[in-house]
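Hi F.,

I've been meaning to write this up properly since the lab meeting, where we talked about keeping a consistent format for the predictions we share between groups. The idea is simple: the sequence comes first, exactly as it goes in, then the C-alpha cells exactly as they come out, then a line or two of notes. No screenshots and no reformatting. I'm using this chain as the first example so we have something concrete to point to.
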Amino acid sequence: MWVPTEQEKYGVVLANFRGLVQYGLPLEIGDTVQILEKCEGWYRGFIIKNPTTKGIFPSCYIHLKNAHIKNKGQFETVIPMEDSVITEMTVTLRDWGIMWKQLYVRNEGDLFHRLWHVMNEILELRQQVLVGHLTHDCMSNIKQHITARLDWGNEQLGLDLVPRREFSMVDPDEISVTELYQLMERRHRRKELPGQASMHHLFVQVKGLMSASLGEELEVFLFIYDSRDSRPISERFVVRLNKQGVPSALEKAERQCTLFVDLGSSDLRKDVYVVAHIIRIGRMVAGEKKSVSNVQYRRPFGCAIISIADLLTVDSKDDHLLKVYSCNMETEWYQIHDSIIRKVSSRYSLVGSNAGLSMSLQLLHGDMEQIRKDYMRLFTRNISITKRLGFSDIIMPGEIRNDLYITLEKGEFEKGGKSVARNVEVSVHVLGADGQIQKDVLCADSGELGVEQHHSFVLYHSNSPRWSEQIKLPIPMDLFRGLHVRFEFRHCSTKEKGEKKIFGFSFVPLMQENGSILPDRTHELLVHKCEDATYFQDVARYLKLPYSKTNTPGNNQPARNSKESFWITSFLCSTKLTQNGDILDLLKWRTHPEKIADCLSKLKDIDGTEIVKFLQDTLDTLFGILDQSAQRYGLKVFDCLVHIINLLQDSKFQQFKPVMDTYIESHFAGALSYRELIKLLKWYIDRIIDAEHHEQIQQVLKAAEYIFKYIVQSRRLYVGATGGQGEEEFRCSVHELFKSVHLFLSHQSKGVSPITHTQAVFLRSFPTVCCELLKVFLVREVAVLAHDTLGSLPVMAHTDCPLQAVKLQCIAKTVESPLYTNQECRCVVLPVILRHLQVHMQEQRDLVMCAHILTGMLSVITKDGTECVASEEVNIIMDSMSGVLLRTILEVTNCPQPAGTALRLQYQDVTGEFVACLLTLLRLLSDKDYQRFLSRFSSKDELMAFLLQLFTVFEILIRPDMFPKDWTVMQLVTSNVIITSLLYLSDALKKNFLNEKFDFKVWESYFYLAVVFINQQCLQLEKFPPSKRKKVLEKYGDMRVMVGCEILSMWQSLEEHKLNFIPVMIGLFLEATLVPQADLRNVLIPIFHDMMDCELSRSGNFKQVEAKLIDKLDSLMSEGKGDETYKELFNNIIPLFGPYPSLLKKIESETWRESGVSLITTVTRLMERLLDYRDCMKIGDVDGKNIGGPVNLLNFYKTELNKEEMYIRYIHKLYDLHFKAQNYTEAAYTLLLYDELLEWTERPLREFLGYPMQSEWQRKECLHLTIIHNFDRGKCWENCIILCRELANQYEAYYDYRNLSKMRMMEASLYDKIMNQQRLEPEFFRIGFYGKKFPFFLRNKEFVCRGNDYERLEAFQQRMLSEFPHAIAMQHANPPEQTILQAEAQYLQIYAVSPVPEGQDVLQRDGVPNNIKSFYKVNHIWKFRYDRPFHKGTKDKENEFKSLWVERTTLTLAQSLPGISRWFEVDKRDLVEMSPLENATEVIENKNLQLRTLIAQCQTRQMQNSNPLTMCLNGVIDAAVNGGLARYQEAFFAKDYIANHPQDGDKITRLRELMFEQAHILEYGLAVHEKYVSLDMRPLHKKLVDQFHMMRSSLGLQPQEFPALVRASPMHFVSGSPRSCRTPVPSAISPDGPRMVMRRSPLTYPAVNRYSSSSLSSQASNEVSNITGQSESSDEVFNMQPSPSTSSLSSNQSGSTHVNNSAPASNRASPLPSDKQKHSRDNLCLSPRDRLCTGLFPSTLDPTARTVPLQIVDPTSSRPEPNLPTLEKGSLGIGMRSYSPMPTNKSPQKTSMPPLTPSPIDCLPPGGLVLNSPARSGSCSSGISSLSRCSVSETCGMDPALSDSPVPLPVPVPTLEEPMVRRGSKTPPPYSVYERNNPRRATPLPHSLSVPPSADPSGLPPKPHLNRSHRLHSEPRQRTVPRKVSQL
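Output, unedited:
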C-alpha cells in the first residue's frame, strides 16, 4: 500500500533506471527527485526538473538527502538542507548546460569555450566544498571564487543578478525591500565600477642591455624620479650585468626584478619616470690599453628613462626596450636624466643606434596584502622590495622603519699640486665611538646586502665632482647613539700602478647631543687633509674636530683648506627616531618644568609624523601636565590635545585612530580630567556667538568626539575609583554643557556666517557624542538630549547654507547609531527626524542624503521592531512621508538624467532608494493600516490626488528602465507589492468613486496601471527557463491572472459607467489580451462583449470600437519591432476573434450578431496584414515577399478602412523599404501615391512624417522632385519627362523662370539619356504559391514578378527557394490539384512569361529607335502570356502540322508592372486554343516580319555585318528544301481539308498570301544580301539562290504569278523598315495578339548553348524540330531564336534561333504524361521564333472587330522569356483575327489626348531588336522552349492596317468603348505616371498615344484589297483614369 513519505522527501539518483515497469519513471544518474509516496522498496515521485511527469522507481536507486518542506501537502515544495552555495551551483549549472549547447548551435565559439572552462572549474570547486576538509578561511576563499564565477557566467548569458549576503543567496521575503535594493545595488555597482585602488606598486625586471659591446661589467641602478619636484621618490635597485650585457646571476631570478611599493595615486602621472643609471666597472678611460692599469673603477656609462603614465594602459606585463643615452660632459652626469626628460639634447647623445635596455614593467594595484595573494608567484622567489623614500600616503601604526638616506651630492677640491684635475673617489664608512667599522649597515641599493664600505663612481679629471649618489643606512635604533659616518677622498691615478691615494676626509655624527637624529637637509662638511690612512686608527683624534662650518672648532685639528668642502644630503625615515628636539623636550617636562609652556606652544609646529611616533608618550605628558597644573596650563594642554586629535583626522594619519582608541581604553588614567575637559569645552562653546574668530572654536568642536571619549572614560575611571560619587554633579555639568550647545545651535544667521560653519562642525561629531554618552547615561535620557539638540536646529535655512547638508548627515549618522536602533530611543527621536526630512524633500534638496536616511530608518524598523510597535512606527512614517515621498519620486523620475557617469549613478541611487522606501512602507502596511491610512483623508479630492499620484508612481516602477534588466528579483518584489496595494485600493475605489461619486480620471488611471502591469516583461513567464518559471510560480503565482480577475471585477462594478470607457479602454484591454496566457484571456474576453453591447445600445453600431481596435493594433505592431516573440503574441491573439476562445460564440445569441461578426472579420483581416508587415520588417533583404505585406496593408487601409493618414504613413514606410533595396522605380511609384493625393493649391499643411509645415503646393513640388530623382535612378526617364513637364507648367504659371529653365534643361538631359544610355530590360516570371503554409497574402495565389537586372529564370528560382527553404518546386506548369492547395506544405510553381504591351502605338511607328521602343515593351504592362503546344485528335504521322494546336494562356494583373511592388497578383486568367491553320498563319507572318526587319536593318547599316540576315535566309530557304512550306501546302491546301473545313476559306487564302509574300520577301532579301554579303559568304549566297528557286518551284509559283502589289521595287525598303502587309481577309488572331521578338543577335547564342536541359520541354522541342521542313544543320541552328528554358527550375537558354534545331527538353508543359513520348514532329507548325515573337506584339485591327475575352497589347519586351503569345476568343469559334502585313498611316496625335513625348531611357545597341535583343521563346511551362516567333511587325515598329471589308464574325464584337469600360471597371493603378490628370495640362497616357502617320514602306507594294482609311480614323483604346488615389 502506498503511504505518503514523512522524512524521505528528496534524493539523488545513483544509477540509471530505464523505467520499463508499469508506471515506471525513467531516471538518469545525477537526477534529483522529489518523493511523494513509498511502498515495499519502491518510491513514487517525480524528477525536480520535470515535475509534470510522475512515476515509480526503486528506493535502492536513490540516495536520500535532508530537505526542508514548505507548504506540506498537495503543493509542497522541497528545499535541500545543504549549503546554499552548493544548491545555487547545482541549479545554475543545470541552466547553464542547456544554454551552453545553444551557444554551440549559434556558433558563439568564444563564449562556448570560456563557459565550458568556467563550468569545469566550478565543478572542481564544488567537490572541494562537498568534501568539507577545508579550513574556514579556505572555505570562504573558495566560496568567493565560486560566486564570482557564477556571477560572471550569469552576466555573460544574460541571466539574473543574484542578491547575496556572505556568499549565500538571500530570500527577498526575509529582508526588507530597502535591504534588497542595497544588496542589488552594491553588486551591480561593483560590476559597473570596479573599485579604484589607492595604493599602487611597480614590478620591474631587467632583461639585459641589448647590443652592448663594451666588454665590461655594468651596474644598472633603477629608481623612480619626480621631475616636477626634481627629486627621487624611491630607493635605488641595482642589477649587475656581465660583459655580454645580461644579468650576472641568471640562476637568481630575484636579483633581476624588484617591486617598487607604496606609490600613491598622485604618483601615476606623466612627469614621474622610471630612471635607469648605468655604471660600468672597468678602466678609467674606455678603450685604453690593458697594460696601463689593472684597477677597476666605477665609471658613468648611460641613462634610460620611461614615464609611469606609459604603463597605465598596459594590462599585463610587457617588455620595453629603452634607448640609452650617454652624457656629453661628465660634470653634467648628476642631471642626465633631467636633461633627457627636458630634451636638452646638447647634453647627451645616443649610445649606439641598436643599443637599448630591455625591461619588463607592470603596474599592480591594491594594498600589499592583496598583492601578495594575487601575485603569489612573485613573493615565493624572495623578490626585492624597493621602498618609497619617506612614508607612504597612509602610515600604518604597525609599520616599523629606521632608514637614514645619505646622498653624496658634490665636492670642491684643489688640484693638490697636480697639473690636471683629480679623479676623486669617495669611500663611505660607518663607525662607532670606539672606531670600530660597523658591518652590514651600508647599502647602495635595495637589492644588496649591507657592506662595510661603499665606493662612489669616479668622474674623470674633475675637482668639482657632482655625484648625486644615494646610499642607505638601515641602522638599528639602539645603535644610532655614538655612530658617525666617515667619507674618505682618494685620487685615482691612471698611471700603470693605478693606485688610489687618500688626500682628505670628512665625517658627520648621526645623533646630536640632545638625542635628535641628523636633520633632513643638505650639510656642507669640512674636508680635513689626510695623506696617511693610519690617521684613522684613533677616531677620537678627529671626532673632536668640527665636521661642518656650523660647528665650533676644537683643538688639535689637522691642517685643512677652507676652500675644500663636501656636501651631503640626509633624509630620515623612521617610526621611532626623531630629528625634532622640541618633542624630546616636551617628553622630558618633569626634568625641565620651566620649558613646559614653551614646549606646549611649539607642539603645534611639530610635524605630524613626529607626533604620531610618540603618540602615547605625548598624550601621557599632556594629561600629566593637566592633572598637575590645570590652572596654569589647562587651556594650553586642551589646545594641544585638540591639535593632536585633529591631526588624526588627516588621511595620512587616520590609521592611528585605533591607536588613540586603544590608549583611551587601556592606558588613559586621568580619572579627574573630565571636570577640566567639560569646563574648558563649555568655555569655548559659550563664546561662540560673541566671538569674532571661530577658527580655534571650530577646531575644538571638530575634536568633540574624542574629547567626549576622554570625558566619558575619565568619568568611568572616577566612578570605578570612588564607587559612583559625584554622579549628580557630572549629570548637571553635562546638561549645562548641552544647554550651551542648544543655545548656539538655535542661533539663526542671515546668509552664511562663521557661526553657521561652527554649527556644522559640531553636528558632524554629534552622533558619536551621543553614542559615548550612552556609556554613562540612561538610553532615554540620551534620546531626550538628541531630540532637544536636533529640535533646536532651525528647520528653514538659506539655500546655500552648508548647515542643511551637515544637518542631514548628522541625522543619517544618528539613524545608523545605537541611539536609533534602540526601540525606546527611536520613539523619541523619530518625530524630529521626520520633521527635518519632510522639509528637505518638499524643497527637493539633498535628496541623496534624504534617501539614505529614509532607507536606514526603514531597515532598522524591519529588523528590530515587533509587529505592534513596527506598525505604529510605519503609520507615523506613512502619515508624515507618504505624500512627499510620492511627489519626490515623480519629480526625480521626470527629470532628465545627468550626463556625467558619477552624477548619473547618483541619480539612479536616489531614484532606486526612494522607490525601495516606498515599497518597504507599502509592504509593511496591513489591511487595517490601509483602512486607517485612507480614512485620514478629509476630502474626496485629497484621496483622489493621492491615488493618482500612487498609480502614476506604480506605472513608473514597472517601466522596463526602472531597474537594470537583470534585476528580476527586485522587479518581482516590486510587482508583488503593487498587486497587493491594488487589491487593497480596489475597495477604496469602489467605495469613494462610484455611482454619483464617479470620477473617470481615477478609474482610467487604475485600468491603465493594471494593463501595464500585466504586460511588463518580468511577468512573462513563458520566456523564462523551466526552473525559473517554477520558482516564480511557487513564490508569487501568476500575478497577471490575479490582476486580470481584478480588472474584470472592477469593470463589472462600473455598470452604467462603462460607456465612459468606450472607446478609451478598448486599446488597453486589447493589449492585455496579447499576453499568451489562456486564463488571462478567458477572464478578459467578456469585457469585449460588454463593450460591444454598450456601444450598440448607445450609437447603434460598433464604429468607435472598430476604429480604436484598428488604431491600437497598428500601434502595437510598431512597438513590436525587433522583438522575436512579438509575432507569437499576435498569432495567439487571432483566435481571440476566431475559434478560441471564440468571441463569436459570445455574440451569437445577441441581436447584433451580424454586425459583430463583421467587426471581428475586419479586425482579423487587419491583424493578418499587420503580422505580414511585422515579418517584413524583421527581414533585412527587401524582395517581393517582404514587400507583399506592406502593399497589402497599404491597400487595406485605403480601400477597406479609408484611413488616409495611416495610408500615407505606410506609403512612406514602403518607400523606405524600396529605397533601402535600391528599387528606385518602385520607390518612385510608391511616393507617387502620396503625390496624387495633393493639389496645386496654397492650402497649409501641418508638419507630418518629417515634412515641415508648408503649403500643399510646396509639398507637392518637393514630392515631384523626389519622384523624378528616383525615376532617374531607376532609368525610367519617360516618367521623369512627364513630371518635369507638369512642374514646368506650374513654374511657368507662377513666372518662376529660373526654376522653369532648370526644369527644361533637366528635361533635355532626360532625352539625351534615353538616346545615349543603355538600360536593361527585365525578365518577368509567373510564380504560384500553393499550400496552407504560405502567408495568407500568398497562399494559393499566383503572381507575376518583375525580375532583377541580369536575373534569368534559374537565378529567380533559386532566390525564391532560398526565401522559402521548405518549399517544394513543382515540375510542371499544369494547374495544381486540390490536394496541393489544401496541403500543409509549400509548393512553388515558377516559369517565365512574356509581357504584352497594350495600346502602345509608339511600337507600331516607323523610324522610332529601338532604345525608345524598348521602354514601352516592358513598362505599364497589364497582361502576360505563355503558350503550350499539344495535339488534338488523331496525330497524322505523315504531317504533324495537321493536328498541332497551341494553348495560349493570358494573365491579367490587378495592377500594371512596374508599380509599387516588383510583383502583383494575377487578377484574371484567359485560355485560348489556336487551330493548326491559325498557328501556321501566325508562324509564317512572324517570319515575314522578321525578314523585313533584318532586311531593313541591313539596308540602313544598323548591323555591323550581314550574318544575322544570312542565317535567317538560310534558315527559311534551306528548310524549304526539306519541305517546310510544302508541309503547310500538304496540310491545309489539300482538297480534303478545304472540303472538311469550309469555314476556313479566308484563313487558307490568308495563308496562301503569306506564303507568296514570304517568297517575294526572300527574293528581295537575296537581292539585298547579294549587295552586302562578304566574299567568304558568296558560296553560301549562291547556294541560297539556287535553293530559293527550288522552293519557289515547289510552291508552283512563277515571278509573273506574284500579285502586282507584292512585286515591288527593292528600293522601297530604303526609306524605312519593311512592314508585313495585311490582307482584308479577317484573321482569327486577336487584335491585341502578342508576338515575340528576338532580343539578341543569334550569333550570341552558340548552338551548343541553345539546347534546353529541361525535362518539360523535350516533347515540344522534338515536335517542332522540323516545322517548316528546315534542316538541322549547324548553320541553321544559328538562325534560330534563342529561348530560355521554360522549366520552373531552370533558366538555361534553350532552343536555337531555328526551329528544327531546338534542343530536346523535358515535357514540362505536356498535359499528359503520355505526351512525353510523342514524336518530335508533333509541333511542326510551331516555329520557335514565330511562336514566341508573336506573343510579344499586337496587331492593330478594326476596333469594331475586337473580341471580348482578351484585349492584349503586345509588349515589345526584349527579354528571353518563354512563350508569351496570346489569343482572344472571337469569330469563328476561336476569336482569331487576321493580321494585315502592310503598314497604315497614323495620325500624329490621338483624337482624345495630346501626344506624349517618351522619356529618356537607355537605348539598345543599334541593329534592331532581332539583332540585339534576346528573344522570348517558348511557354514558361509549355515546353516550347525552342519555339521562336519573331514578330517582325513589332520589331520594326509598324502597326498593321485594318481591312475595309472585314468578314462578319459569328459572335458580337465589342466596340472601342467596350474595352475601355472593361478596363475602367477594374481599379487602375493609382501610381501610374501616365494616368495623371492635371487641370492646367492634360497628361496623356502612354498606352493611349496615337502614332504619327508614316509613309508606306517603299520596299514592298501594298497587298491587294488593303484599305487604310479605317485605321487612320481609329482611336486607341483608353482607360478610365481617376484624378488621384482618393477617387478610387
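Notes:
Residues 867-894 form the longest helix (28 residues).
The radius of gyration is 53 Å.

If this format works for you, I'll send the rest the same way.

G.
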